[in-house]
Amino acid sequence: MSTPQIEAFLEMMAVERDASPHTLSAYGRDLADAEAGIDGGLMRGDEAGLEAWYAGLARQGLSPATQARRRSAVRQFYRFALGEGWRSDDPSRRLDAPKQGRSLPKTL
């Protein structure tokens, strides 16, 4: 499910930031997931709804890297929405980054 606001954001990412097709595809999926998972969607969602959606990502078993990408996509979307005047607040400002585990060394 993609809204006109998500489409505008992805278009901006493609044109102004020269985002790769893979990035645009991943961000599109991430934002569609957020749109469906946040009460009221991205445009009407509040901090509590956004935090509940984000906390649910770990319960779904998504890796910390995937959680971080979804957080990044949503935060960039809200910055864009503020700049466009679609929202007067940024409910993503308090989202904490997921804890990234340290990888083991390649050789011992």
Structural overview:
By secondary structure, the protein is mainly alpha-helical. The chain has a single domain (about 5-85), classed as DNA polymerase, domain 1. Helix content is about 65%, strand content about 0%. The protein has helices at about 5-15, 20-35, 40-45, 45-60, 65-85.
Which helices and strands appear, and what pairs or packs with what?
Layout: H1 4-16, H2 21-37, H3 41-44, H4 47-59, H5 64-84
Structure summarized in a few sentences:
With 108 residues, the chain is mainly alpha-helical. The chain is built from five helices and no strands.
Mean of residue pLDDT values: 90
- State the name of the first-level CATH class: Mainly Alpha
| CATH architecture level-2 label | Orthogonal Bundle
- CATH fold assignment: DNA polymerase, domain 1
Order of helices and strands: HHHHH
Rg from Cα: 15 Å
Compute the number of helices: 5
Strands, total number: 0
- Judged by helices, strands and strand pairing, the structural class is mainly alpha
- Residues in β-strands, percent: under 5%
- The helical percent reads 55-70%
Low-pLDDT stretches are none
Give the N-terminus to C-terminus distance in angstroms: 47 Å
- Count up the domains: 1
